[in-house]
Amino acid sequence: MTYQGKTIKKHARGNWFARVRHGSRVISIYGRTQLDCYDKLKLVVDKVQSEKAIASAERYLARLHGMTTHNFVQVATPQAESKAKPSYTLKQWFDEWLGSYKVGNVRQATIDSFKRTIPYLKKLFDTDINEITSLMLSKAINETIGCRAKDKIHNMCRQMFTIAFNNRIVETNPTIIIPKPKQYAKFEKKAFTVEQEKKFVDLCLENLDKYEPLLICLVQGIRKGEMLALKPNDLNFKQNTLRIDESYDHQYPDDMETKNPASRRTMPMFDLTKQLLLKYKDHDENERIYKNFNGATLGKHLGDLLAKNDLPRMTLHELRHTFITRCHEKKIDELVIQKWVGHAKGSRMTKAVYTHIMDTAENNFIATMNGLDKGTDIPNDYDTSQKAS
Known about the structure:
This protein has 389 residues and is mostly helical. The chain has helices spanning 34-65, 78-81, 90-102, 108-117, 134-142, 147-166, 194-206, 208-220, 224-228, 271-277, 295-308, 316-329, 334-341, 348-372; strands at residues 2-3, 6-7, 9-10, 16-22, 25-31, 68-70, 73-75, 235-236, 241-244, 265-268. It has 3 domains: 1-83, no CATH class; 85-185, Orthogonal Bundle (DNA polymerase, domain 1); 194-372, Orthogonal Bundle (hpI Integrase, Chain A). It contains 14 helices and 10 strands. The strands form 4 sheets. The chain has a 3-stranded antiparallel β-sheet with strand order 3-4-5, with helices on one face. The protein has a 3-stranded antiparallel β-sheet with strand order 8-9-10. Strands 1-2 form a two-stranded antiparallel ribbon. Helix 7 runs antiparallel to helix 8 (208-220) and helix 8 crosses helix 12 (316-329). The protein is globular, with a radius of gyration of 26 Å.
């Protein structure tokens, strides 16, 4: 497999690698799988080519306007400096950047995340952004407690100063040489074993009024917000499919956008899910099925259920991990799993090459997943006409 003339090879250790030359540097890219390596290679090659194009354009503009450039740093001549440039403090630029480039283009939850992150840089609020150095930003990041917070500050600063640099508001971009904060080892993603999953399913079936949403997340592998946004018009009982095109968060009830474009999808409705959702067939098609639930109460229900029945501690999202784990164990094709759970495909080329696999084999994979629940049915005494609480 190649990209832009760069070949991906298998390493003696079993992983995959490729190399890209950038000036005097040789960048090595590694991946656990060939597709993983291809994704990383594509990002690096595109970035290198973009930087080369920018450098070429900068040199051309420098000759055109009597400026000199070096390493993407502009040094203006006195003639160029005579033109007045807008001046911003860090806080003023944050407000301008957020209002002009983010509001209306990203979800409100992302906007709120930026607003919660900027206070970490409070000591620099009144500093002119042209006077802010990489050392000052690095110190602010390192003084912050928590690797996740550090990563958010780094990411926000990189975006802010890149836009400022591209608009000639700052002469240099101090974030270029700031290394990404060290990522401490994360907890291993947890998933139920087959035996634990069977026990969990049986426990949920004993009290569907309380635990039905948890079962939907587990059996379908969908996100919490996607489950909470389900409506009767998303259910196709003739074709046995489930449409996912919205996500619900009680903190942002008017923002029903999915996590990303790949999250909008139609996936198979597995047998147990169909039994659970059939009672909503004639309900108001525009009303959320699980309108009486929210993420906080479901998380508490899940925690209590696991603690009382000697099952490992698990989050709602880790029910999704369990679904993906079962798919891998059953040798279901990686691209089909990506389609079902709403993960972006590796590339356009990968999508084109493997489209026939998804078209011809998906029905067999659906049968495989339904086989996992063979013998698992809703109790006979459960009234399927009742509404979930």
